[in-house]
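ok here's AmpG family muropeptide MFS transporter:
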Amino acid sequence: MTTTHWKSLLFSRRMLICVFTGFASGLPLYILLNLVPAWLKSEGVNLKAIGFFALIQFPFTWKFIWAPLLDRYALPGLGRRRGWMLLTQVALLFLIGSLGLFNPKLDIWSIAYLATALAFFSASQDIVLDAYRREILSDEELGLGTSVHVNAYRIASLIPGAFSLILADHLPWAQVFMITGLFMLPGIVMTLLVSEPQLVRPPKTLREAVIEPFHEFMTRHGWRNALWILAFIFLYKLGDSMATALATPFYLELGFSKTEIGVIAKNAGLWPAVFGGIVGGVWMLKLGINRALWLFGVVQVVSILGFAWLATMGADKVALATVIAFEALGVGLGTAAFTAYIARTTDARYTATQFALFTSLAAVPRTFINASTGWLVEQMGWINFFFLCTALAIPGMLLLFKVAPWNSEAKREKSL
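and the structure:
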């Protein structure tokens, strides 16, 4: 892999498209995770009601249920992928802009319905953007393109997590949400300018769109190997996800102030993750996805141990910055390889449904298993909890022997 070759790939039109897909995908999610809770809290809504809004993440776990509809049907005019992309993006723009028109103390249920609709269209946009990205990228470009997408996804968090909060100190919330919603426009413009992917025959019936993605996946690999792959997708990020589920309460318990956590986390967390994702994507061009899963997975596991080390250091700012930066680097590397692997595992005829199924499965630990982390910490303490998270990361690594052997890149999943 020459320097000229990877530069030509990195600065290609397809990679620029991945920047826009990542930003458009990340913006609505971070509005739900960061901006809406901050708005509700600043308007005097109690924590119990705010906690209820965590339930709106369910569409991201169950999106595979309606993904076959997006694989089967095409909206007139723009095509199967671009039509759904435009519909979801326009809906998101108006839903985001509408949120601030309500009073949280008087219209909390109206806000809850709007937020649920926002989550639904955000998850639906993810379905079609993931499928579109997979279909425009060659196998060689998958790792790099996925890294670019993931990093643009993270950078999108700066809009609702920083820019919009600063605006809220100077403007009414209604204007803040309207301005924030306008950041969906780059994605809309991208959708109007790009071309529809040239695909193999799409599903002819809804029954084929629902049944065949699962049947194709199972028959392509065989039941046993297909289950190995599903187990790997479920387990690869489990330890890391559990370790970071209570990161902020952990830092507070060590004695750090909210300001210290915010400043250090923003600077030490975001940019190492972006750097790790970009470097990981370029490195994957040389390594291949299989070897990247091995090497980046090791970094991911070691980063979990950093939290246990921090627990012994106490409120040490340098230690906190080091742990956050290394963990973010590990996540940037590991997520790039993991998402590229998921993309590679899909069949071109059923990209939306299979991609949605795999990413939904990967989200299960974050949505359900992480609910037990508070109880576990109370039972065993922070250090032992992080040792447990490290141990839970090992099975996913061991499954690499089955799903991504070190020297089997060329044969890919058929080598299982």
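+1. The two ends are 27 Å apart (CA to CA).
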